Amino acid sequence: MRRIGMNAGFRRKAAAVAGATALLVGGGVATATTASAGPYCPSGYHCLFEGNLNTPVHQYFNSDYDFRNDVFTSGHGVNDNSWSASNSSSGGYESHYYYDIGYQGGLVFCVNPGSSVEYNQLTDDGIDGNHNGQRDEASSLLLRPTTTVSCF
Length: 152
Fold this sequence. Notes:
Elements: H1 2-32, E1 46-49, E2 57-60, E3 84-87, E4 94-100, E5 104-111, E6 116-117, E7 140-144
Antiparallel strand pairs: 1-2, 1-3, 3-6, 4-5, 4-7
């Protein structure tokens, strides 16, 4: 009789360990695959808008060294012509937008995963592509893991 009791206790401990392991593994997988959805931008993408959010858009899945060949869904060029941005990164990447092609000229602004920035939150001097202000200035996008830079 005593032997049966020991086997039952062992089975309960083994079941508890197996259950805890399943929770840890399952929870880790669920956390790692959770996407951060920004408004009006499909999961996994970083989006620039020609006007406010939900206007003609260009979607980026990876970094883009040069916006000169990119167009919004309206047909207008993206380079030095974006007003709003949204980040729906599925990998936790920040969207870092730069004044010049090749990630040069300094950081215009950045957007955290699951966040966005509207045109009225960006500064503008009314002259496109002159490195003053933030609206109508971006020429390249670099996706970066979480940084210490303050992003929208």
